[in-house]
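Lay summary. Proteins are chains of building blocks that fold into shapes, and those shapes determine what they do. In this project we predict the shape from the chain. Here is one chain we studied, written as its sequence of building blocks.
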Amino acid sequence: MPVFRSFLFAPGNHARRVEKCLTLGADAVILDLEDAVANAEKTATRGMVVAALRRDRRCLGYVRVNSLGTQWSHGDFVAVVTAGVDGIIVPKIESAGDLQTAEWLLAALERERGLPEGGIDLIPIIETAAGFSNLAAIARAARRTKRLSFGAGDFTLDVGITWSRDETELLPYRTAFVVESRAAGLEPPLDTVWVSLKDPEGFQHSVQRAKDLGFQGKLCIHPDQVPVVNDCFRPTDAELAHARKVLDAFAQAERDGLAAIQVDGQFVDYPIVYRAQRLIARADAIAAAQR
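And here is the predicted shape, written in a compact code that computers can read:
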């Protein structure tokens, strides 16, 4: 079972970076055809990313295509829907119809090429005011979409928000991503990139905030960010020890006919037990993915 903590971007037209990113321990890599590739090179880059993702690797391989409506988007899908591609990232999704269009095209290409229908993941990036206003509908629009992603760079530009170091201005939007994902039955979402590469302390705080708010992972734009994200979204030994203690104590309490107890001074009832079970399951999934 794959885990989705770290998604590392790499420009699809830079062969050395592409080759390196596949070895850096990210849970998934995203080979970019959009912002990181000059317009004049977009068409030629398609074949490069497909060839790269056919190589042996220990991480999931995604491609970020150009946004729907651009002159490159359809050609991107036609080129990259192939064996070896685990998923497609679609930027600037603004409505349920946008995501349904992407899913329809993806499914048609899978059928045409004899690929398992629904086998290629589809992750939308929500990064405009229009997209955010349709967040609930987008979350329910495509059966193959399991998680959403937040793009704060374009979003803050579109809305006119100052993207500060402490990111307090992003709190209501991040919270909405988590709540709407849960309400739609999706996995927890993926958090936005951090662009201040010379501020590792700020990045650490940003990752921790995302985890605390209920995100399952974060988009990365530099190799140094990957281990920070992986470590933050991995349950610590102390957290696991406490979770096991809670489960053991509660199992005994249930045998004694109790459904509310204290563990280390903390009130424990079924919601706390479910949280402990979820934390242990996440740790087990991470361990299995790393074998």
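What the prediction tells us: DSSP finds twelve helices and ten strands in the chain.
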